[in-house]
Amino acid sequence: MNPINYYGSTKLEEEKVVAGLCHHFIIARTSVLYGDRKNNFASWLVEKLQKEEDLTVVDDQFVCLLR
C-alpha cells in the first residue's frame, strides 16, 4: 500500500488498527453509495451479510475523482 495523500495515509492507519485489534473483520473501501435507500450498494451488502448469503462483487473497478 502506498497512499498518495494524507487522507489515504489516515485510512490505511485506521485499517491497520482494526486488523490489529480484531480477529474477524472486513474492510470495505466503497464508492458510489448513493441511490434510493432500498436500492444501493450499502443496503444490498448489509442485507446479504445479515442473511449470510454468498457475495459476488467486482474486484477490478476503479473510481477516480477529477480535480
Number of strands: 0
- Topology as a string of helices (H) and strands (E): HH
Helicity level: 25-40%
Binned strand content: under 5%
Helix tally equals 2
Query: Low-confidence stretches at least 5 residues in length (pLDDT < 50)?
Result: none
Distance between the termini: 22 Å
Cα-atom radius of gyration: 14 Å
User: Sheet bearing the most strands, described?
Assistant: none
Q: Please tell me the overall pLDDT.
A: 81
By secondary-structure content and strand pairing, the structural class works out as mainly alpha
The global form is globular
Task: Summarize the structure in words.
There is one protein chain. This protein has 67 residues and is an all-alpha fold. The protein has helices at 6-21, 41-50. It is built from 2 helices and no strands. It is globular, with a radius of gyration of 14 Å.
List the helices and strands and how they pair.
Layout: H1 6-21, H2 41-50
What descriptors fit this protein?
67 residues, mainly alpha, 2 helices, globular
Question: Can you give me a brief rundown of this structure?
Answer:
The chain is 39% helix and 0% strand.
